[in-house]
Amino acid sequence: MPDFQPKIVAFVCNWCTYAGADLTGTSRMKYSPQVSIIRFPCTGRIDFMLLLKAFASGADGIIVSGCHPNDCHYSSGNFHARRRWIIFRGLLDFLGIDVSRVQFSWVSAAEGAKWAQLVNETSERIRELGPFTGYQRLRGLGVG
Amino acid sequence: MNALQEKARELLATKTVRVVIGYGPGSGGQARALFVREAAQARELIFDETCLQNLAVYLMKPDVRQLGKAALVARPATLRTLLQLAAENQLEENSLLALVPGADGVLSLSTFSALEAQVASQDNELSVAEKSELEKFAAMGLDARREFWQEQFSRCLKCYACRAACPLCYCTRCTVECNQPQWIPVPAHDLGNLEWNVMRAMHLAGRCTNCGDCSRACPVGIPLYLLNQKLILDVSANFNSRSGMTAKADHSLSTFKPDDPEDFIK
Questions:
Q1: Which residues of chain A have a Cβ shorter than 8 Å from any chain B Cβ?
Q2: What is the interface pTM, i.e. ipTM, of the complex?
Q3: Which is the most buried residue in A57, B56, B112, B136, by most CB within 10 A?
Q4: B150, closest residue in chain A (CA to CA)
Q5: How many domains in chain A?
Q6: How many whole angstroms separate alpha carbon B207 and alpha carbon B243?
Q7: Cα angle vertex B242, ends B241, B248, to 5°?
């Protein structure tokens, strides 16, 4: 599927990764345009249901990124989020949903280059995996 | 009168408790919950291999709490549930008596330390059969697992019997009743069924005490216990914790350790 342009949703925290992605832009680094960034106050705010809703709305891949451990603006939001992701990944895998479509990462406000690389790599991997038709087929009556 | 009936009669006659929640004979060879409020009625209590329900589910109901102090016939999973409820500040110490029928009479436990000691003395691990069933899934491969669960969830009616039967699903307002936004679609289609079952399992992660009542309550026989047991093993492997062991537990998902595993995070 050479023409496939994946839709990637990035859930990022306001304090580190959003600022890091901003740095990528202000540094004029070019990176994959397939990503749509959604800004959250903290990775601790990113409910697992939001990830499911992104897939249900047609996302082919998801990036979740926030502050490095010990750098959380609210001191422990990313630690709590990490536990949630550990459990959530295990559950998705158990249900037969490909967890390689969800990329978790820590990107600080100074890591503009890391953000560009992360998006490029994820975008390339999702392009190889193809559209997430298995999940999108689940969409039933009037659910977009 | 057997020891349990005698104990219940005595507790009610002395007004130590106002209600004994136990098992009585039901239809179809199954036991049903029995609320004994008169000493004379205590002779209807039974306790045998058909008595499977986790009666702790009733403790969370306001109309049961209104009845006054209760004694509760407790199986091993029920005792874990009581400790988990205590850890979640849903149960006051000495606010109820847990009646544990055994070979040499009926134990009557009311303090958290007594409950903890009783739980510590029983087998709380997943059985060998339960573990081997989960291992079978791990060996199945991603696509086979997806097909299995899609087939299972396609039968889900969204009746929420699993939620009603669960003593730890005690929120007065559940996410499925929230409609701004509508987190869980109302119709029972494949997407909504998947989302509901993922959410139910996630909200019980690190809390479920493996009583199995969700699966028993399911009218279409979805093996929900598999999801719960998978999460119990994951929580134990990653965070070295187990729900329902103490009355002062740190819930696995509302605490953290700085060195939690993160090999999947770039």
A1: 48-49, 52, 56, 69-70, 76, 79-80, 82-99, 103-106, 118, 134, 137-141, 143
A2: 0.91
A3: B56
A4: A95
A5: 1
A6: 5
A7: 85
